[in-house]
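thoughts on my protein:
***
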Amino acid sequence: MLNDLEDFFPPEPCGREHIIRCLQEARRLFVVHCESSIVLAQSALQAADTLKATDLEIEALLLIGQSQQIIQHTDTAVHSFTLALEKSKLVHDTRQQSQCHEGLALCYQSQRQTQKALHSWLNSLELATQENQIERYIHCYLGIGDLYFQRDHFEQAFYFQSQAVEWAQLHQDIDLQSRTQLHLAATLIRIQDYALAERLLLKTEDTLILPIRLSWLAEINHYLGQISLAKHDWIRAQAYFQAAYDLNLNTSSRWGQTQCLISLGQLACQQAEHEKAIVHLQQALELAEALENEHLQQQIHRALSSNYEACGDFIRATMHHIGFHNYYLQLQKQNTRDQLDAISTRRLNQAEIKLQLLRSELEVKQLMQQRSLEHERMQQLENAAYHDALTGVLNRHALDEQLPLLLQQIRQEKNKLCLIMIDFDHFKQVNDLHSHQIGDEVLKQGSKILLQLTRETDLLARFGGEEFVLVLPRNDASIALRIAERMRQEIARHDWDKVSTGLQVTISLGCAQWQPAMSIDELMAAADQALYQAKHQGRNQVCLYQGPEQ
């Protein structure tokens, strides 16, 4: 690898173009291999110092600091950013000063020095407003949001991250939009809005600039794993966490590796595989100790204590509980002395007022168009996720998600609910005699007829193939039977001859009324039994489930 890098080292003597070329390659490697980026940037720094090119020295120091911060060498990163800041002040470059403060803020944030981090973010933000650096506003909003996130103040975190998302949309920068959406998704997961978080993550994944943003892809996989873990979907959680871990290995992100190992440990623990959990958590602890991250070590010691206790190893369980308690006390002291002070709050409010004024000066039309486009994209994502592509009615996924919620509401109301299974009769013959294209048209027109006979509160979903399910909340069996009979009649009397000469279409319907002791599976089985009866008795009719056979 070093031999490859040597091709980009500035020669002796060298000109500005050689240093610029070296920095360009260092910047290219920054997101995929930070160690190589540091080697090149240090070479560029030495050459720039010899040439007395202060602007290039600052660029090199910034890149070194950013790389050191990514691989969690935060103390050395602080030194690099401080040197860059001193030099940028000498040449009165406010843009680079703002960037230096941002780097310092990220380092202090990583060290959980909240007060220092906030002061650095505010310094960066105030300098950015002097030159209207929209990109820097976004970074600062994200950073301040992350500070609140670290302290579990998710409402404030959500506010600042949402502001960052809106600025990124206004800036029309796909890469920044991806970054802001990732931060917002993390907060949505913590407030347990899993559905919106998942949609946002999948949308972000579609727009990632790869392979440059492999580390972000790792984050997406990790967050999707957390969502799957919360839903007790062990198989998907395992796949997502493993994919995230492999990507973090690829990008040499020790922080990312640690997070993934903790999550794999949590997954194994929930599956009662405590020995497997301990292996993952011990690996995570080694990385966290190397990173000197007290917060991670506290979290891991607590998890290890629980798992050793579950294995009956009470000595190790106690040792790790002591480790957890020691870090807990340290962090409590740190939190107590590192509260956000009144000066910081006042500066933050003043900066926000400036930003609101700057924002109002930008084209409102552009923002509204962007929001409209974003809304349309989210609607398309929702339609794709919850609607059947052929008929446009809800799909099985939507039914599986909405029926339990609806049934829970009906239980609380002590109300009634009916479910109707609908099957298009002899549908295979329609496909065989008239073609699959005609069969598709039958389902499209048929579902449209059915939908016209439903209320807004009803759920009509395609269950699979030629089967549909209609859920009728707050209706008893007598009303459900009338609705089913009306549907049967409307399908039978429809002019199917216009679709294909000689085509006749009928449906069979099985209806069941929910009883308080019934599960969803039992309700579906009851309706299915009634449907079987309707088909067995000659099709093109409605049958009601009468209860289990005596």
Notes: The beta strands are 417-424, 459-464, 467-473, 507-513, 542-544. Residues 396-544 form a domain with the Alpha-Beta Plaits fold (CATH 3.30.70.270).
